[in-house]
Amino acid sequence: MPTTTWNRHHVLSLADFTTAEYDTVLQIAASFQEVLSRRTKKVPSLQGQVVANLFFEPSTRTRSSFELAAKRLSADTLNFAAASSSMTKGETILDTAKTYLAMGTDIMVIRHKEAGVPNAIAQEMDRLGVRVSILNAGDGQHEHPSQALLDLFTVCTLIDRSNPRLELLKDKKIAIVGDILHSRVARSNIWSLTASGAQVHLAAPPTLLPKLFADFVLEEDKTPSSSTLNRQLFLHWDLESALQDADIVMTLRLQKERMTAHLLPSLREYHQTFGITRQKLQLCKPNVKVLHPGPVNRGVEISSDLMDDPEFSLIQSQVTSGIAIRMALLYLLGSGKDSGIAIK
Ligand code: NCD
User: Nearest-CA neighbor of 133 among 107, 105, 110, 99?
Assistant: First the structure.
């Protein structure tokens, strides 16, 4: 069993995650991946605990993945959907959270279209002195920690299935392509990938990757040697230089719902210049792999045939990895730390 390094009560951001924490999550997820390959895909780790999924914004895979992860750990699950809740009668987010708290919720998984909502709820819970843990499942354009961790797990297990760890990505060239400006997935991935020692190349048209973006990220950097980030993060306004010799390409959805202005001439033009196709992948290393967090605009950020090509596409593996990673996070925040690691 892996040695655990974990003192976190909430998972809100990856900005201050340590190497030991990344490795703990990866190794526990690997144990759960093994559980998920068994005929009986369930362990009693969170028996008697309540996990509430509070999704104030639409979601398919993240919500279902957290729900299944909680069920595989034998937790009781509560699912909240804003549109059919008392929020339509004017209840505030904090009051909704307190209602779930009063029902005995141990872990709240929160998604909201505004950045900072999970943090605000976590602060209020800490102020009240209650033991509930908050897990950020995507807040506005800020962060999406579980997505970046599942991306990391997908890539690391490809390199070493039995022992996924952060150092496996050291010096790899990873291109993140697409709507970086609006992407919480990109922001969380920047923290995990630079922490691994990878070279992270961001590529998008200037309207979706403003020059200020890098300064903004560097400003948020709380690591002692922020200059490290400077040497590992590169911005490109063309696709080719980012793809050249890349080991991994992460494509991102055009987040049309977050665009307040017309930032692109047309989707067709975008696909021609920044869409990932088999032909453009020829610039990369021969065994390059492509990721996408989903949902995908087929034929826009990635060509439809490439998306379905198992030789290059890791999109389905990402979905599978997501369950193991979310099991690991729920486990670490839940009873695991009290009862010691006992996945069997
Ligand atoms: C992402 C999200 O919601 O931020 N999707 C996801 O969680 N699988 C990315 C996106 O919406 O494009």
Answer: 107
Residue type, 240: E
Q: What is the pLDDT of residues 98-114, one digit of tens each?
A: 999 999 999 999 999 99
Strands (E), the chain: 50-55, 76-81, 107-112, 133-139, 173-177, 199-203, 233-236, 248-251, 289-291
List Cβ neighbours of 243 (8 Å cut-off, separation of 6 or more): 175, 177, 203, 249, 280, 281, 283, 284
The whole-angstrom separation of Cα 169 and Cα 194 is: 9
User: Is the Cβ atom of 142 under 6 angstroms away from ligand 1?
Assistant: no
Q: What is the chain's length?
A: 344
C-alpha of 282 from chain center:
27
For residue 293, give the ligand 1 atom closest to its CA: 8
Backbone dihedral angles phi then psi of residue 77, each to the nearest 5 degrees: -120, 140
Contacts for 207 with CB less than 8 Å, ≥ 6 apart: 181, 263, 264
Please state the separation of Cα 247 from the chain's center in Å.
19
**Which residues contact residue 210 at a Cβ distance below 8 angstroms, ignoring those fewer than 6 apart?**
181
Nearest CA to ligand 1 atom 12: 253
Q: What is the pLDDT of residues 14-36, one digit of tens each?
A: 999 999 999 999 999 999 999 99
Q: DSSP assignment of 181-244, as one string?
A: TT-HHHHHHHHHHHHHT-EEEEE--GGGS-THHHHHHHHH--SS-HHHHHHHEEEESSHHHHHT
Q: Which amino acid is at 192?
A: S
Q: Probe ligand 1: pick from 111, 185, 320, max atoms within 8 Å of CB?
A: 185
0.85 surpassed by pTM = yes
Residue type, 215: D
Quick one: tokens of 131?
Answer: 């033991």
Task: Return d(Cα 337, Cα 331) in angstroms, integer.
Answer: 8
Q: What angle do CA 146, 17, 195 make, to 5 degrees?
A: 95
- The pairing of strands 248-251 and 133-139 is unpaired
